Amino acid sequence: MFGYIRAFKPYMRMCEYDTYNAVYCGLCKEIGRKYGFVPRFSLSFDFTFLALMDMSLNKTDLCAKKQRCIAHPLKKRFCVCCSNGLEYSASSAMLLVYHKLKDDLQDKSIKSKLRSVLLLPFFKCPYKKARANYAELAKSIEEQMASQRAIEQEKCASIDKACEPTALIMQEIFGALGNAGNKQNLMRFGYLLGRFIYICDAFDDIRDDCKKGNYNPLLLIFDSDDNNKVIDDERFAKIKDYVSDSINFTLGELAESYVKLEVENYKPIIDNIIYLGLKNVSDMVLKEKFKRKLREVKDDERSV
Amino acid sequence: MNDPYKVLGVSPNATEEEVKAAYKELVKKYHPDQFEDSPLKAEAEEKMSEINNAYDEIINSMRSNSYSYANADENSSGVNYYEVRRHIQAGDITTADNILDSVPQNVRNAEWYFLKGSVCYTRGWLNEAYQHFSTAVSMAPANAEYRSALNQMDQQRNGYMRGNPMGSYANGRNGQLDCCTTLCCADCCCEMMGGDLIPCC
Hints:
The complex is a heterodimer. By secondary structure, chain A is mostly helical. Chain A is 71% helix and 5% strand. By secondary structure, chain B is mainly alpha-helical. In chain B, helix 6 (110-123) runs antiparallel to helix 7. The chains are: A mainly alpha, B mainly alpha. The interface between A and B is medium-sized, with 35 and 25 residues.
C-alpha cells in the first residue's frame, strides 16, 4: 500500500534480516490462509512493522519454519507461523487496502481507476471478514476516510489538519496493541507514524498532483498565482524545506514516544526501522528517488 | 497545621531561593537515615513530612502567585491562562483550545502563543506548534519556558531523535557538522542552567 515504514537493510545483521523476512513471509502466508490468494499481493512492509511491534509488545516468541512460498518457488524460506500478532496485522491490512482501493475509484487517472475496479472484487470478502472481527477499528477507519474526503473537498491548506485522518487511523491501529500502561504512548506513536506516512506520500505525489490539479496541501501552503502545471524550482525548494522540517519534527516526536515504550523484544530490528529506515525513506522521498527505488527493489526481488 | 513559614524558619517575604536553601538545611538535619537504630527515628520521620508539606505549600503558593501576577495585565482579555494550563496538564485539550480561541486576536500575548503551541503540540500538530512557540519566544525572548519548548523542537528540526543507538545518520538541514554545533550549544545551555554536558569544556 504505502511501504514507507521499512528497515534499512545495509545496517541489519544477518539474523535480524532473516527474522524480518520471516515475519514478512509469515504475514503473507497468514493473509493467504485467512483471506485468499489475491490479497496476498497487497502486503507491504508497513504491516510487517505492525506485526513486529505486536510480537514485541506481547512478547511473542519467534517460531519459524522453513517453508516454500509461491513468490520464491525455488528456495525454502523461514516463515513465522502461528502468532496472534500476524492475525491482527493481516486483518488491519485488509481493512486499509480495501479503503485505499475504494479511494482510488474516485481518482482522476484512468490507470488507477481501472486497477481498483479490477481488484476490488477480490477484497470485498476479506474486508467483510476483517470487519466482522474488528468492528470498531473498521468503523473508525470509515469515519476517517470520510473526513479525509471532506478535507480534500474544502481544500484545506494546513498540513497538520490534512495529516489528521491518516494519523488517527494509525493511532487507532497501534493503540489496540497496548494495555492500560502504554496505550496512550502507543496511540501517540501511531499518530506520528501516520503523520509521517501522509507527509511522505504528499511530497511523493506533488509533481503529479500539480500537473493534474489534484488536491495536495503542500501545493496550497506555497500557493502560486499563476495556474502553472509545473512547479518551478524556487517554489519546489521552499516546499522541500518545509517538508523536511515537518518530517524531522514528526520523527523527533516519534522517537520521544518510542523511547517511552521501552520495547525489549526484537529491539534491534525495531530500532533499525525507527532510527534508520524511516530516515532513509524520508531522505529518498526528499530526493525524489523513493518511487523509482521501489520499482528497483521489486525488480531486485523478482530476479532473486 | 503549623504555619509553613515557621516550620521552615523563613519570613513570609522570602524569595524562592531562600526557601529552597532553608529547606535543604532542614533536610540535612532531620533526614531519617541519620537516625537509623535510634529511638528518635519515628520523630525524625514525622518532622520530615512536616517540612516537606510546608515546603510544597510555600512553593505552590509562590508559583500560582507568579501566574496571577503574569495574568494581571492579561485579564483585559478576561481569560485566566492559569486555568488553561491546568486543562492542558489534565489532558483536556479541547476545553483549553476553546478558551484560547475565545481570546480576540489583538490581545493575544506571548503566553497565549505558548499555550496555543502546547495545545497543538499535544495534538501532534507539530508544524503549527512550532510556529506558535516561535512567536511566543519572539514576543518574550527572556522567558526560559518558552525558549526551552522552542529549543526542543529546533533540535528535532535538525534531525535529532531521542534514544538513537546508531549514532548519526544525519539528515538534518545542515548535514554532519551540525551535530557538533548542536552538542556545543547543548553544553552551553546546560552550563547556563548550572549543569554540564561536556565536562572538559
